[in-house]
């Protein structure tokens, strides 16, 4: 790899800069030997190029943990503001919305109204790939990312929603157990990933466990496979866990029949006290010298070495290791697609596989890896995509109450009836809220 680097076409300029010396030194240190007991992740060529260009050394990159991107969707409600939804709920760069509002088809975004259905596909790093705004179930408009900007197209095709009930017995990993079901051919990976977000399958699943899943799929007429697959409800009965839950149409999160949340409340900051933010989350940050976009996927807190880091929510440590750019790092899975990352640590206080509680001490901040000074680089990912942890709406309740609980129970009773085969799926489909009729 080092030989390829030195002959890379874009590296005709002299390499003997402070950034390149430090970056290559880190790589050589990594190759020559690192702690054997920790998980090692070799840097990609793209990471090396970024290191050679970087001057601030803050944008430490670790390969994503998420499954491939999937479609998201939302039905506009009374009082919604597109700019607020775009940035705070959908976690898309606000600059992309301004870009769409300044090109062909902008009138469709300016005239959106309650009841309209919106779907989008985003990359793992939160960049918009495709956006669809539907006027009704058969007509809409679409923007697709191209090499230069976005293309705009009118859509005229019927959207069809299908419900599936899946029942099975675990045999190995869940995707293998689903692979024998012809009605979801090719979709087993997406369905398994969806359930894995809500249950600690990798820790507590055992062969012989039984499960029932209620799945919603959306198809475009003429397409051979669904473009969207969503889990609506599930019942898992096993040796080490028994959980039954349904999706709440109010916030899209999963709750038990009694309204207990499957995801714990989150603290905003993973520190005992507030420290100065030295670098904010910014997907559109441009490098001051190269001009290339080098997104900063986290929030940096300027902390003295040895400052205590605490878990912002209950979860499980899924990675603990060392990276030539990120230094000592931890990754915690909090369930329902929420993961957090902690980089440049001085000392670990938990091990891989440990369960942690909100407020529990997990590490001490440091200055390891590619870093200009002692600080904590903190990232929050939702469904595999980085979001601004300082601004995003965070889970705040352990249990639904009042009108929220009443609405959830009214809706979930139908879902559980379909899940338990007490209601035909055709009947259930008619009872569920329909969009753009």
TrEMBL record:
One of its GO terms (cellular component) is cell envelope. The keyword Transcription regulation does not apply. This is Murein DD-endopeptidase. It comes from Marinospirillum celere. Its main location: other. One of its GO terms (biological process) is proteolysis. One of its GO terms (molecular function) is metalloendopeptidase activity. Pfam families: Csd3_N2 (PF19425), LysM_OapA (PF04225), Peptidase_M23 (PF01551). Keywords: Hydrolase, Membrane, Metal-binding, Metalloprotease, Protease, Transmembrane, Transmembrane helix, Zinc. PANTHER family: MUREIN DD-ENDOPEPTIDASE MEPM (PTHR21666:SF292), PEPTIDASE-RELATED (PTHR21666). It comes from the Bacteria. Its cofactor is Zn(2+). Residues 71-149 form the Opacity-associated protein A LysM-like domain. Coiled coil: none annotated.
